[in-house]
Structure to design on (285 residues):
């Protein structure tokens, strides 16, 4: 196992990827028994995983587009990390070190399948950490990056059924960010994006119960100020709500506010797709 851990960071990415897959298989097999085989290596393995994820996040797009770049991303996020998380009771401590490089990678990569792989890992790992404790700590962090990363994670993780019981708690934490006049504008944009994703993906019964509290705060934070990466999620959410308004009086009364927010968006700052969506929503309103 010691040799395998060293090979995880081999300069030959094919070797590194195959090693990660092999270790994932060993962890899975070990877990079927008493898990003792892997126990002495957990600390070193955790450090090696953090180092590898940091290396991936620092790769250029050209490097990641190669066959071997894709192999290492899948080997780490789809196989090794979920396996390691499943046998590590204290995985939350390692997860703290992984969040920033993972988010850096997920935001910077142009490869949709790689983003899906990372998000898939986040959804699975929600079973291995205490989401309430994680978000309570990170969303209240004085560090801007921590709050941004936590907001991004919140929006993505709450798409997963395993996070449904944490939905309201996380939603209220995000609302607190939007209500904080001292919050960094980028953090506010990320929080708004997360809330939009949660409204779109959340359980409909919970959504309707919370709209009167959520929408005034959400709309007051719009339009987005800096992080246009959240634009599609935010305005798609508004589009979905507009489409629901015909059958929900509760939503219909917010239509004037939807219109006011959308008219304030500087379309030149948005992508063509976002601009087209906004114009279509205004027509429908």
């Amino acid at each position: 196992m010691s040799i395998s851990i060293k090979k995880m960071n081999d300069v030959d990415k094919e070797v590194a990827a195959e090693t990660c897959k092999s270790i994932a298989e060993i962890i899975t097999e070990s877990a079927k028994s008493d898990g003792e085989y892997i126990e002495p290596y957990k600390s070193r393995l955790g450090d090696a995983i953090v180092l590898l994820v940091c290396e991936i996040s620092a790769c250029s797009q050209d490097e990641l587009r190669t066959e071997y770049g894709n192999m290492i991303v899948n080997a780490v996020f789809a196989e090794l990390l979920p396996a390691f998380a499943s046998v590590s009771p204290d995985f939350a401590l390692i997860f703290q070190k992984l969040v920033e490089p993972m988010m850096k990678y997920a935001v910077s990569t142009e490869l949709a399948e790689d983003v899906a792989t990372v998000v898939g890992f986040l959804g699975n790992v929600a079973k291995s950490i205490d989401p309430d404790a994680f978000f309570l700590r990170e969303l209240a962090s004085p560090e801007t990056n921590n709050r941004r990363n936590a907001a991004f994670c919140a929006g993505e993780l709450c798409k997963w059924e395993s996070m449904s019981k944490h939905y309201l708690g996380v939603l209220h934490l995000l609302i607190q960010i939007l209500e904080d006049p001292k919050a960094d504008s980028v953090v506010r944009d990320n929080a708004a994006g997360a809330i939009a994703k949660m409204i779109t993906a959340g359980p409909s019964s919970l959504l309707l119960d919370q709209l009167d509290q959520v929408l005034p705060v959400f709309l007051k934070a719009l339009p987005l100020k800096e992080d246009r990466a959240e634009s599609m999620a935010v305005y798609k959410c508004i589009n979905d709500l507009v489409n629901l308004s015909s059958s929900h009086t509760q939503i219909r009364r917010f239509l004037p506010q939807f219109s006011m927010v959308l008219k304030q968006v500087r379309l030149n700052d948005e992508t063509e797709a976002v601009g087209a969506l906004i114009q279509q929503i205004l027509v429908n309103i």
Remarks:
- The mean pLDDT is 82.
- The chain is about 75% helix and 0% strand.
- The CA atoms of residues 168 and 210 lie 9 Å apart.
- The radius of gyration is 21 Å.
